[in-house]
Amino acid sequence: MQPKIRKCLYLINLLERKGAMTLKEINESYQYSSIYEGDDILPRTFLRYKDYIELNFPCYIEYNTRTGKNELHRNKGFYGENDSLFDYLLSAYHIEGMTELALKHRDKIMLTEAPTGVENVQIILEAIDKNKGIECEYYSFNRQTVKHQLLIPYFLRTWEQRWYLVAEPDNHHHGISIFALERMDNITLTEEKMAPTNDISVEEYFDGSFGANHSDEQKPEIIRIKVYGQQVEYVRTLPIHESQKEVEINPEWSIFEYRLVPCFNFYQQLLWHREKLEVLEPQYVREEIKAAIQKMLEHYND
Length: 302
Description:
With 302 residues, this protein is an alpha+beta fold. It has helices at residues 3-18, 23-30, 43-56, 84-97, 99-104, 121-130, 202-205, 231-237, 264-272, 283-298; strands at 59-64, 69-74, 132-140, 145-159, 162-169, 177-180, 184-193, 221-228, 245-249, 253-260, 277-281. Helix 1 crosses helix 3 (43-56).
């Protein structure tokens, strides 16, 4: 992570945790941080950091003339419909900051696996930045074969511990497709520039999608589920989908509403909640879940 970005994320994190601060108070905290290099943040440097934060992050620092302190304000929607990139960068900053202590106390920490394919993110972002294509060897799970691919990158996303690339194959026969970064080998950039032929944003492409799934045929629709007991709090604090809305609350249950395209992964997520969740509508989604439960029961008919 570049020093300027690291210091800007430090300032954001500091002001989020401690609230409004003078530059003197900021420097007093800065002296005890892991990124301190022996010199205080000068007023002119602080102004440059403020400008960089306002231009690149969904927040800004404002000087309050009445209190003489610097206040942090969030600018929702700065990155489009969600600020997940900012949250991801802030999380990366926290992880980087705890590296030394984490190694020291590694016997006290248990983590899930880091997203796979992350080692290929940098070169793909470089291709996007330079308007270049990428060439790679790609392993197909379905065909169980390795095929040489020439791709025009569109955008990246993470889902369930995997990095995915949405890209356009050079022959254009199949339009835009999704590729798992972990199955790419020997990635190189093309010499010539290769611009995408479709003018579409990541929000438009994944509109109503569940995870990394995308459908050109189906349109998002409203799905309503009923969640029972203590599972309500779990769903409330860990939404099943970013479109989740709690539309009805009862002491024993809550009804949640979603706007998405139903798919296998969505059904799998609903079944994860076992008997604590019921699909209300549409009827065909209710029938899909019912059929899956009946199939499962067949394994226990002994």
